[in-house]
Design brief:
Blueprint (H helix, E strand, L loop, with lengths): L2 H19 L5 H22 L10 H26 L3 H9 L11
Length: 107
């Protein structure tokens, strides 16, 4: 599955969420939600790495929560990109791969 396919599915879920809860989605809203999710990822990281209280969670549950919060951050990045009309695949390729010395599949 390509990143743009994932972005479209997440966009549809985000729109459904907004409809259910009466939320006006905008780039500002998406950026604020991304910030919120990053805070939750930070908290999960601190817990999973023993730098915060364990919150009564097993190590496996902490890792599961960490992965879930990372998923939220990635998802909200894609929603934010969509709100601004940014193609996430292109943005990543232009930013990250421009100086790649040995790209896969190129000899």
């Amino acid at each position: 599955m390509h990143l743009n396919d994932i972005a479209l599915r997440i966009e549809n879920l985000s729109a459904q969420y907004a409809e259910v809860y009466g939320i006006h989605r905008s780039a500002e809203w998406a950026l604020l939600k991304l910030t919120e999710e990053l805070g939750e990822l930070t908290q999960a990281h601190l817990t999973a790495t023993g730098q915060s209280k364990d919150r009564g969670l097993t190590s496996d549950k902490q890792q599961h929560l960490l992965a879930a919060e990372l998923g939220d951050v990635l998802g909200m990045c894609l929603v934010y990109a969509g709100q601004l009309g940014i193609d996430p695949e292109r943005a990543i390729a232009e930013k990250w791969f421009q100086h790649e010395k040995n790209p896969p599949g190129v000899e």
